[in-house]
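Data availability (excerpt). The following record was deposited with the supplementary files.
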Amino acid sequence: MKKKQNIIITIMCLVLALSTGCATKEDNSLKDTSETVLSGDIGEYMDYIDKNVEGFEPYYNIVFAFENLPKGFPNFPFSDIQDMYEDIRKTFDYDIVSTQPLSYRGTYTGDKCYVDGYDAEKDNSKECINVVSYDYDGNQYTETPLKTVMLGEDTFGKFDDKIQIGRNLQKEDFLLNSRTDKIKVVLGNNYINTYKIGDVIKLDLVAYPMSFEVVGFYKPNVSLKMDVEAQKKVEFDNAIIIPHLFFNYEPEGEDERFQHIFITGEKISGFIKIEEDINDINEKTFNRYEDRMKSIAEKYELSDLYVMPYRPVGFVWDSNVQYNE
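Predicted structure:
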């Protein structure tokens, strides 16, 4: 049992490491929540966003606290988390954007531009390509993280007008009724000469093999900006865009159970839109949103499984817009 728990921890660490882009530190949306800044001077934050940024929308970030789960994740509260997620959606304008990557299992020979975290200037391919990993049973294999954008069911529609071929994600794509069902994906424009509509790609989703069916391609240069001052650019051209899934079947085996736990928990790692004008955001604004979140979490006895940082973040959903000095 101890060996199994160590393997779980190893897989979790690998998923978190891959989701931060190999050795890079740019994507910290899945960091240990103990490192999250929960308090501070909101005026400091306003110094960053108090400018005319076309298309800027302020949000509060909430983060699921995986580290507060018991070792081995016994009695994971799947239904309570799902109900809490639905309550959040009813209460707020709630978006999910995650850049945790899919990974290719085996020897990767594709273009390095699709590899998450690869830096041509640093030539860090040894840190990102054909990385040694271990499955739940301790078996060794190689994998390569691929640039991925996971969108929530209330978020994908923001890109309906960005499709060049095929279609965008649809509501029904978010429900997976069987592990053998193909997960629908939309590819960034640079994939357009590599795959076609209907192609099936075998990839790992949270260290578990799945099949993905191509249903569309985005136009060139589709991207968004997020995080503090909306400074982090998320580009679609070299990415695989996937739905944040709902699993309508029971997992078989601990590796698949871990996948379900991770994807389900990440539904409480999202972004709550602040309805107030940027100039009206203050301590009382945070307190109002925090109190509403606390009320929802207490309803399901999940108060210790999320954190809500004090400082807002921001999105620019069409990142082709520019700062106005």
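Summary of structural features: The helical segments are 2-19, 42-49, 78-91, 125-128, 254-265, 283-299.
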